[in-house]
Structure to design on (518 residues):
C-alpha cells in the first residue's frame, strides 16, 4: 500500500472518530441551526424589534420558540421594559384581538409602567395567536409571557388551547435523543438513595443557569435554588415541569439538609420547620374596621424613591417670605389684556422666577452623580402634580428660555396628560430642579423631600394677608400679600450660602416681576 493511500485512509478514520466523539446534543444543535434562527440572532433581533412609542430602544421580552409536535413555529412575547426604572408592569387594554394581523408599528397592548400608561408597539409582521396575560393582569415581571405571535394565519387555531403553563416547555428537548440504556441508568439513579453530592445536579454548564420565565417565577415562590434543578429543555434549560418534579421528589429538603452546616439538633428543627405547612394569610373579617388597599406600581416607586432620598441625601432647609402684591397686579393686568387667549397663574410666575434664579445661581441647577457634580445648562423644572394614582413630576423644559405664556401652556398640557396617565417617559424623567406648590390647599409652609437626582426642591405655600409697618401710610401700617417658600437642598451639592443666594434672587424677581419680562 502506498504512503498516499495510507495517509488518505488515516485522514478518513480521524474525521470519523471526531464525528463520533461529538456529543449527540451538539450534533442535533448543529442540524437545528441550519433550519432555525440561532438563539443569539433571535435575541438580538428581538431587542431591536420592539419599542415603546417615542422611547429609545427599550428591552423587550420577545423570544423565538421552535416548533414542536404540538405547536408550529411561533414567537413568545414577554412583558417589555418600557422605562429605565421598570421592573414589572400591569397589562392594560389589548388593542389587537386573537387572529388579527399585526403590521410593524401597530400598538399591541397598553402597558402600565411605574409612572405612566404606555403603548407597546410591535415591530414585526404576524398574527396574534394567543393572549396569555389578559387586560387587568397585575405585577408581571419583565419578560413574563404575555402573548403568542405566529407568521401564518393558518397557525392561529393551533394555539386555541395554549396556556401559560406551556409557555416554558414548547421547545423540543434536545437531550431527549439519548440512548435507552442512558435513560434506564438515569431512572435507576433517581430511584436509588442519592448521596449529598448526587442530590445537587447543575442546571447548565458554568455559572449561567438557563430557565424559562415561568420556571423562575415558580422557583422563587417555592424558595428553590435553580442551581439544584436539572433542566430537561434545550441546553439544559429549566422549564415548569422540572420545578414541579423537583418539588415532588423532595430533593430540595435533602439538598438543604446536606448543604447546611448545622448541628444535629438544629438540623432536626429545620426539618420539622420545612415539613410544617406555611400559615395561611388571613383575610380581614367582614366586620373589620379597615380596608387593605393593594399597592400600585406608581405607589411602590414613590415609596422606594422617597425613602431612599430621605435616608441618603443630607437635607437642609431655608425659608423666605415674599411680598406678592406686584405679582398679583401684573398678573391681573396681563390676564385682562389677554381677552381669554391665556390665563396666567401665580405658579407660572413662580416657575419663571425659579428659572431666572437658577440662571443667576447655577450651582443650585446641579445634581449629585456619585463621582462628580453635573451642572445643567438649562432650567428643566419638574412640577409636582397630584393624580389619582399618586404623585408625578412632569418636566417643563428650558424654562429659562421661555416666556410666561409658553410656561403656562406647557404646565397645563403636561398636568392634564399626567392625570390622564398619558405622559411619555422623557416628559417625567430627568430635569434639574423641582417645585411643589400646595398653596391652593391653604398650606402656608411645608418641607418637601428632594426628588433625585435633583439637588433641591422649592416648597411653595399659600399667599396670606399680613400687616407690615409703613411710615408713609396714614395709620403707619398696611396690609400686604405674603407668600412663604422653603428650599430643601442637598448639602453635598448646594452649600448653605449658595442656597441663600438662590432664595434672594428668587425673591427679587417676584417682588419686582417686570424683570421677568426682560
Amino acid at each position: 500500500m502506498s504512503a498516499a493511500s495510507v495517509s488518505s485512509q488515516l485522514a478518513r478514520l480521524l474525521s470519523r472518530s471526531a464525528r463520533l466523539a461529538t456529543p449527540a446534543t451538539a450534533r442535533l444543535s448543529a442540524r437545528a441551526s441550519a433550519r432555525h434562527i440561532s438563539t443569539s440572532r433571535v435575541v438580538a433581533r428581538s431587542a431591536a424589534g420592539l419599542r415603546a412609542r417615542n422611547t429609545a430602544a427599550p428591552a423587550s421580552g420577545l423570544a423565538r420558540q421552535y416548533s414542536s409536535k404540538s405547536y408550529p413555529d411561533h414567537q413568545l412575547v414577554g412583558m417589555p421594559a418600557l422605562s429605565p426604572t421598570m421592573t414589572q408592569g400591569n397589562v392594560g387594554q389589548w388593542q389587537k384581538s386573537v387572529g388579527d394581523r399585526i403590521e410593524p408599528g401597530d400598538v399591541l397592548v397598553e402597558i402600565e409602567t411605574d409612572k405612566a400608561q404606555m403603548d407597546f408597539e410591535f415591530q414585526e409582521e404576524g398574527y396574534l395567536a394567543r393572549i396569555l396575560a389578559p387586560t387587568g393582569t397585575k405585577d408581571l415581571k419583565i419578560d413574563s409571557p404575555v402573548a403568542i405571535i405566529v407568521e401564518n394565519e393558518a397557525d392561529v387555531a393551533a394555539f386555541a388551547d395554549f396556556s401559560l403553563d406551556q409557555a416554558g416547555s414548547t421547545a423540543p428537548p434536545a437531550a431527549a435523543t439519548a440512548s435507552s440504556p442512558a435513560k434506564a441508568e438515569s431512572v435507576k439513579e433517581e430511584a436509588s438513595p442519592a448521596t449529598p453530592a448526587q442530590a445537587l445536579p447543575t442546571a447548565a454548564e458554568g455559572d449561567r443557569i438557563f430557565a424559562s420565565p415561568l420556571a423562575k417565577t415558580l422557583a422563587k415562590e417555592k424558595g428553590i435554588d435553580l442551581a439544584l434543578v436539572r433542566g430537561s429543555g434545550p441546553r439544559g434549560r429549566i422549564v415548569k415541569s422540572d420545578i414541579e418534579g423537583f418539588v415532588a421528589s423532595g430533593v430540595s429538603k435533602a439538598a438543604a439538609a446536606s448543604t447546611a452546616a448545622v448541628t444535629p439538633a438544629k438540623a432536626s428543627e429545620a426539618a420539622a420547620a420545612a415539613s410544617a405547612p406555611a400559615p395561611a394569610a388571613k383575610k380581614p373579617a367582614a366586620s373589620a374596621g379597615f380596608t387593605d388597599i393593594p399597592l400600585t406600581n406608581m405607589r411602590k416607586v414613590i415609596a422606594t424613591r422617597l425613602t431612599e432620598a430621605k435616608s441618603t441625601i443630607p437635607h437642609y432647609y431655608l425659608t423666605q417670605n415674599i411680598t406678592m402684591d406686584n405679582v398679583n397686579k401684573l398678573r391681573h393686568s396681563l390676564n385682562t389684556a389677554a381677552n381669554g387667549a391665556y390665563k396666567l397663574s401665580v405658579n407660572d410666575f413662580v416657575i419663571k422666577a425659579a428659572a431666572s434664579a437658577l440662571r443667576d445661581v447655577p450651582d443650585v441647577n446641579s445634581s449629585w452623580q456619585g463621582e462628580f457634580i453635573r451642572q445643567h445648562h438649562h432650567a428643566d423644572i419638574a412640577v409636582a402634580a397630584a393624580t389619582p394614582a399618586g404623585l408625578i413630576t412632569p418636566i417643563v423644559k428650558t424654562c429659562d428660555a421661555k416666556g410666561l405664556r409658553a410656561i403656562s401652556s406647557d404646565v397645563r398640557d403636561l398636568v392634564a396628560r399626567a392625570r390622564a396617565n398619558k405622559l411619555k417617559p422623557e416628559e417625567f424623567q430627568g430635569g434639574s430642579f423641582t417645585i411643589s406648590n400646595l398653596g391652593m390647599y391653604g398650606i402656608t409652609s411645608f418641607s418637601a423631600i428632594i426628588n433625585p437626582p435633583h439637588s433641591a426642591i422649592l416648597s411653595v405655600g399659600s399667599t396670606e394677608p399680613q400687616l407690615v409697618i409703613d411710615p408713609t401710610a396714614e395709620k403707619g401700617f398696611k396690609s400686604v400679600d405674603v407668600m412663604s417658600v422653603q428650599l430643601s437642598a442637598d448639602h453635598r451639592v448646594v452649600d448653605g450660602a449658595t442656597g441663600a443666594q438662590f432664595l434672594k434672587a428668587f425673591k427679587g424677581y417676584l417682588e419686582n416681576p417686570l424683570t421677568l419680562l426682560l
